[in-house]
Specification:
binds 5'-deoxyadenosine, alpha/beta, Transcription Regulator spoIIAA, OB fold (Dihydrolipoamide Acetyltransferase, E2P), binds iron/sulfur cluster
């Protein structure tokens, strides 16, 4: 859900299908990956790092020290394009010269722009989109060997296999279960950048989850553009999404399973039943509503009305008591009136979301709405966004206040023995900083820690660890 630039990797663990160091042409070559965009992109970077290190490549943290630089871009809004382009401007100044050095632009902006990138950023050597990740090594071979520029988006799309991933060490790992998107939301560039929806075979997913547990991970977040539609599309489709969750929740050593992002049109009673009955499937549903106005939802081609969304929220509350509900919202879509916007404000009041990502509509080339125009003046949309965000923040603060005095269980993700502060998340995905008394045992990373909430701050919750066995 974060749309911020993310870390590059240095100290990492490997899992996935057959990482197989082969002593190839990449042996000892250094690589640097900069990531923009969503969790999918973060995970795509982990897969590219996995492919390179399986070939003997070495991750570095500075672009200037790298033989191979990959800038993994996002293009969801115009701002994302601008961020990537400005970063590329900086990186091309510091890149190493010489044979075998490569500057590659990968990800969604690369897919959408194709060879236009060569004009926008001089001295880019390689362009490849998200569906071409499995071709990373042959594509790098081609540019390194022939010293030509290659637009990899024109290469045939390889089959859906899962390259090894190189993840930072930790407690929580991403696992892709579904790629692409067959929905046709009028504003969204993703179907154009990530292609048709397809699901990964359940056997591969379970095998990867087992490997992750054996490496010490205790939480898995399943990723898919419409993750709850898992199993519906593609030759590789296996079980349904609820079945996948059931199978994962039986895996010894895996304490928590999360998933994102769900689509209202792919919701099912079965999914809510699994969430309600398994203590390992976390009670958090990220279900983008986008707007509170039926007129806007129809124009956005979302395929549901507010009443349908409301029914699912009702069922969530009934079947998964205490579940967190988070969402995405867009303001300033084509022809949005003050009345449409006020309906969005009132659904925020009605559903009392536990969190929301909210955005000003940004017209994207290659989407249906691009040509429609009739966008509210920028200043109007900026004001609507501010009003919306204020309302959401205020609700989150009120919700946090109600938690003061309650006991929660966090999965310990960080532990500082000097300050004796443990940091982790509640099942509902709220971050808690917990003080551990000097007489209590140090909590192990990846262990569940009971905490009494003592204070609600804007940035999160604070509490004290309860003595545990
Ligand atoms: N403009 C603004 N927001 C968008 N989103 C997707 N496309 C656009 C766009 N063109 C938002 C949606 C989606 C989230 C990932 O980004 O709310 O759920
Ligand atoms: Fe992720 Fe969408 Fe950005 Fe691609 S365009 S990185 S799918 S948010």
């Amino acid at each position: 859900m974060s749309h911020e630039p993310t870390r590059s990797r240095q100290d990492v663990s490997s899992s996935g299908n057959s990482p197989n160091p082969s002593g190839s042409a990449f042996e000892g070559r250094t690589f640097y990956i900069k990531t923009f965009g969503c969790q999918m992109n973060v995970h795509d970077s982990e897969r590219m790092a996995g492919l390179l290190s399986a070939e003997g490549g070495q991750p570095v943290t500075e672009p200037g020290a790298a033989d191979i630089i990959l800038v993994n871009t996002c293009t969801i809004r115009d701002k994302a394009d601008q961020k990537a382009l400005s970063d590329l401007g900086r990186i091309r100044q510091v890149r190493k010269d010489g044979p075998g050095t490569v500057l590659a632009v990968t990800g969604c902006m690369a897919q959408r722009e194709g060879e236009e990138i060569f004009r926008l950023v001089p001295d880019v050597d390689l362009i490849l989109g998200p569906s071409q990740i499995r071709n990373l090594i042959p594509l790098l071979d081609t540019v390194s060997g022939e010293r030509t520029r290659v637009d990899g988006t024109l290469w045939p799309v390889p089959e859906m296999t899962t390259p090894p991933a190189l993840r930072p060490p930790g407690v929580s790992a991403f696992v892709t279960v579904q790629e692409g998107c067959d929905k046709a939301c009028a504003y969204c560039v993703v179907p154009a950048t990530r292609g048709a929806e397809r699901s990964r075979p359940i056997g591969d997913i379970l095998q990867e989850a087992e490997e992750l547990v054996s490496l010490g991970y205790r939480e898995i977040t399943l990723l898919g553009q419409n993750v709850n539609g898992y199993g519906q599309k593609g030759d590789t489709a296996g079980a349904s999404f609820p079945e996948l969750l059931r199978r994962l929740s039986e895996l010894p050593g895996l304490l928590r399973v999360r998933f994102t992002t769900s689509h209202p049109m792919d919701m099912s009673d079965d999914l809510l039943d699994v969430m309600g009955s398994s203590s390992r499937v976390m009670p958090h549903l990220h279900l983008p509503v986008q707007s509170g106005s039926d007129r806007m939802l129809a124009k956005m081609q979302r395929g549901y009305t507010l009443e349908t969304y409301r029914r699912w929220v009702g069922k969530l509350r009934e079947k998964v008591p205490g579940a967190a509900l988070t969402t995405d919202l867009i303001v300033g879509f084509c022809s949005e009136t003050e009345e449409d916007f006020e309906q969005t404000l009132s659904v925020v009041d009605e559903f009392r979301f536990d969190g929301a990502f909210s955005f000003i509509y940004s017209p994207r080339p290659s989407t249906p709405a691009h040509a429609w125009g009739d966008i509210p003046p920028r200043q109007v949309s900026v004001e609507r966004l501010e009003r919306l965000q204020k309302r959401i923040e205020q609700q989150a603060m009120e919700r946090n206040q109600t938690l003061v005095g309650s006991d929660v269980e966090i999965l310990t993700e960080k532990w500082d023995p000097e300050t004796r502060i443990a940091v982790g998340r509640t099942p509902q995905f709220l971050t808690v900083r917990a003080a551990v008394a000097p007489e209590d045992a140090d909590p192990a990373l990846g262990s569940l820690l009971p905490v009494r909430i003592e204070q609600a701050a804007r940035a999160g919750l604070k509490g004290k660890a309860l003595p545990h066995a």
